[in-house]
Write a structure and sequence with these properties.
two-stranded antiparallel ribbon, alpha+beta, 25% strand, 7-stranded antiparallel sheet
Length: 306
Amino acid sequence: MKTPSDLASVVSNLATIEARKARARAWFEALRDDICSAFEALEDEAPTWLYHGAPGRFVRTPWSRTDHTGASGGGGVTAMMHGRLFEKVGVHASTVHGEFAPEFRKDIPGADTDPRFWASGISLIAHMWNPRVPAVHMNTRFVVTTKAWFGGGADLTPVLDARRTQDDPDTKAFHAAMKAACDANARVASYEKYKAWCDEYFYLKHRGEPRGVGGIFFDWHDSGDWDADLAFTKAVGHAFLRVYPELVRRNYATAWTEPEREEQLIRRGRYVEFNLLYDRGTVFGLKTGGNVDAILSSMPPLAKWP
């Protein structure tokens, strides 16, 4: 039999986790808004002699879901833009809950003993018209089962072979930003570990090649200090918001050739292969009844397999 102190402890723990859920969700949604504003500013700035038409704007579409039992399970908002600089970019925030389907429970920490879950996060992928501007992916999330953890990361994909090196200025700047986010939170985050994890994760095994030039990747991140873990997760978001617009501005005034566009479309085919064969976020979203259009918005608008 539980004592009054036991019950008080349970209530206190529940209040703590609910407060943490609210803080994490508020951060992801605020970051979504800041990134959308920054990308729309880039649309306004892009030189008109190279990018024609009106600057793009994000279109936001709410969605809701049910879990595998048919119960209401939260939802989110997709924010999509097809612009004159961004060929296709999605910046999505969602907060979902429910029960994992039986066949999925063994793959999620804590779900094998209790299938209930709650998850909130932000996810984005940007595909650019200009092959000289690298594609990019970023996501961070907070997941609660009987355990609770953060996950996510950010990685860069230059689409021209000449730019796909660790010595390329864009690659160096992107890695420096991710390293700074980790180093500022070194008590709970390791750049070396998360860089290596990214290199291992974003690898097309069937082709024997990486998807891009890497970045950082982390999952099941729980140091025991939740506030420190949230601070690290925020640092990743801040680092991305600073560095990627810098990379776009560095490259967007450089014209491209038809052979470079062809190379871009072929490289995008590799992106499709990874996301459909290996990406955990795609699998998680589809297996938890997520919004299919939002999940597959990571697909580039055009790609080629020669």
